[in-house]
Design brief:
The chain is mostly helical. It contains four helices and no strands.
């Protein structure tokens, strides 16, 4: 699987967790859980895709992770009118 496809899947994996994080109080226990729960899934995806942990993949994958979290959080706050 290519780096771009894997990065897209990482973004998609993080969207629901970013949404849940966006509905949680910042830096609460739930907030930390929603940030860290997808990590094992991303690691498994990296290994299954054959990318492994090559240095050149880190900026792309970390960016994809945070983009998914960010977009999910924006959706929770703006589209669903959730107030924290």
């Amino acid at each position: 699987m290519s780096l771009q496809t894997t990065a897209l899947l990482v973004v998609l994996i993080n969207l629901p967790f970013g949404y849940l994080r966006g509905k949680s109080e910042k830096f609460s226990k739930q907030w930390f859980i929603w940030v860290h729960v997808p990590v094992p899934f991303v690691i498994a995806l990296r290994l299954l895709s054959g990318l492994g942990f090559q240095l050149y993949t880190f900026p792309v994958m970390i960016s994809a992770y945070f983009i998914g979290q960010f977009v999910g959080g924006i959706f929770a706050k703006k589209c669903c009118r959730v107030k924290n």
